Amino acid sequence: MKALVDGAARRRVEHCVVELGTLLDPACGSGTLLVEAEELDELAEAASDAPARGPNSKGNFEREVDAGKAIGSVSEQLGGHATTRYKIITDRFGGIITMYPIP
Q: Is the confidence at residue 10, as pLDDT, over 60?
């Protein structure tokens, strides 16, 4: 199933994890994707090839992807270091709920 970034998901991801100045909210605690907003679609496309695990306890599916290049940093709680990996959470139809860097 293809992962899709719709308007609501884009706003949620940009607000919490994309380095876009005023949209970034460190209080979200999910790390920072250091990519341009346009690159979110590329990250979502790459996740479409990753196997989806789930459903999780909320009925959603999880995909972990290695971008092959540094795409951001994990949260301060996890050390704040650079990472090439990220997780995408999708609903059962492939709509992205959120995405964030992982160790």
A: yes
